[in-house]
Amino acid sequence: MPKVLDGAAIAAGIKQEVAEDVRALAARGIIPGLAAVLVGHVPASEIYVRSKVQACADLGLASDLITPPDSVTTEEMLSLIARLNARDDVDGILIQLPLPAQVDAKTLLDAVDPSKDVDGFHPVNAGRLLAGRPALVPCTPAGVIEILKRSDIPISGRHAVVVGRSDIVGKPVALLLLHQNATVTICHSKTRDLPAITRQADILVAAIGRPGFVTPDMVSAGATLVDVGINRITAREEFDRFFKGNARREAAFEKRGSVVVGDIDPRAFEISGAYTPVPGGVGLLTIAMLMSNTVRAAKMRRGL
Ligand code: NDP
Question: Is the pTM of this model over 0.85?
Answer without folding.
Answer: yes
